[in-house]
Automatic annotation (TrEMBL):
It comes from the Bacteria. The keyword Protease applies. Coiled coil: none annotated. InterPro entries: Pept_U32_collagenase, Peptidase_U32, RNA/ubiquinone_mod_enzymes. This is Putative protease YdcP. Its EC number is 3.4.-.-. It comes from Tepidimonas thermarum. The gene is ydcP. GO terms for biological process: proteolysis.
Amino acid sequence: MLPHQLELLSPARDADIGIEAVNHGADAVYIGGPGFGARANAANPVRDIERLVRHAHRYHARVFVTLNTILRDDELEPARRLIHELYDIGVDALIVQDMGLLELDLPPIQLHASTQCDIRTPQKARFLQDVGFSQVVLARELTLEQIAAVDAALGPRAAPGRAVLEFFIHGALCVAYSGQCYISHAHTGRSANRGDCSQACRLPYEVRDAQGRILAHDKHVLSMKDNNQSANLRALIDAGVRSFKIEGRYKDMGYVKNITAHYRRLLDEILEERPALAASSSGRCTYTFTPDPDQNFNRAFTDYFVNGRQIDIGAFDSPKNPGRPIGWVVRTTADHVEIETHDPATALANGDGLCYLDLQHNLIGLQTNRVERLGPGAEGGMRWRIHPKDAMASLKDLRPGTVVNRNRSMAWVRALERPSAERRIDLWMRLAAHGDGLRLSLTDADGCTGSADLDGPLEPARDAEVNAARLAEGLKRLGDTVFQAVSVDVAAAAPWFVPASRLNALRREAVAALMAAREAARVRPVRAPAVQPPVPYPDDVLTYLGNVYNHKARDFYARHGVRVIAAAYESHEEPGEVSLMITKHCVRYSLSLCPKQAKGVTGVQGTIRAEPLVLVHGDEKLTLRFDCKPCEMHVVGRLKRHVVREAQRQAREAPLRFYRTRPAPTAP
């Protein structure tokens, strides 16, 4: 990618969703392969990825495959073979976390450093650039100033080997620094670093202080709102970001279509304002719908830490989708509820998803089975009768005056189930005399050319003007190609009659020649060379937080000057209490109990201290410790015995090989 180009990077759960992401404006798509991806349930066969690659490359869009879990020793060779397969089908880059992969015999495929690499500092980003990563996915927690500092550390943007900065701009937020959460593995044996997170962060917790007093009851205090950087794109560009990433490899087709189109429109506005910048792929999109992020599942939105710490980043009441308010309850009966909408133009449909808050502020779902329009309401809205899917008796605290939200519109869902976008590349066409025949010459918006000849002799047209119009109209019929004609020039020196069948064949041949020229002009990304001699890693000691799970990763870090290399948490060499999560989110701050918040407040200053808190969910207890100097929170706990026992059982049945710093315990 060139330094003046911007990349909209969309997720794909499968190849069909990836193809629609491209159609709706993505410059690149990231997708999971058949294994070793950080979303275990979003795997795809190589043959499906190849289909996506072929489609994306028509627009000079790129396809990245996620291979971003930490690997055992016995998984390295299967991963190496998979990487060769992916390279052979034309995949443009791999997104990786495990540094052991850099010690293998890989094809010259471009490497991108996953957000799982925990890239928060200029030193870490520069190290990854110097060892051969061409793109680095920054931590979501960075501010604009921190992003700019990373950008400066990488050197001039046009310098050879300079890495591209990638940043998440939309979607679900992981509360932990990526790659620094072990709660799932400690409690269930399902490792987030191996693509199988149990999402303990979305659970409700009771928060207690050191004296046992309850500060919050059944609150989702580790659950974040969803990321939305729509208002910050220009500032992110100024800070150095060039790849804008949408989260969501578990998301459905409608989400990817809508959110991709939303950011495509925003970025295109910026490109119009700033002609020195350009998109990194070809074509312009038209849509049959108006993109709207609020229409998809979300937990309300936040821009997280981009503009500094905010107090309203959490979705503490519920991890569900609260939707948009559309009206209020007017009347309830034993079998239906009647509501009045705020806007008389709001239309409900059978199957719409509604919800409301009960008296305890819990979000209650109300799926419609059948709706009836009753007519104008008393307050100027429209009155509707709703027959819910569930029994009215089960809808707790539903009473007149209750505000009703809609979190799923069936009209919206159906609109995005149909074809909803076209992506076309501008094309200039010229038909002129060539010998005793004709030549059709094509030039696309990228400057690629293709031509085809129609041999003569040909019959002269009876009416040159009418004939020229007929030829131009026939040439415009580009059908299911990727092109749209913006200009068709039928030269006056070519007043020949051409049968429709021969004109169609000429057009198809010229388009095929142009597509071949586009493929020849497409530059395949290559792996950046590592700086020699090997640059030192920013630290000379790696704890379990370094996620070293195989001996090749250990060799990599040793080669880069690390003296002490601990084993990954998944190696079970940390049985005692450790930080199971490190996060920029602070529960004390969110509860207005941060000592920094109390500064200058008369009668309060000095009375609030960053003492530990305790989270309780059922039988599970986690301790919150606060490191105020870097303004971080550590969630502390220990490895559960049943997780160790299960790992020992699996090892007896199928011996596994991974990095340990001390001998494996003898199985009982």
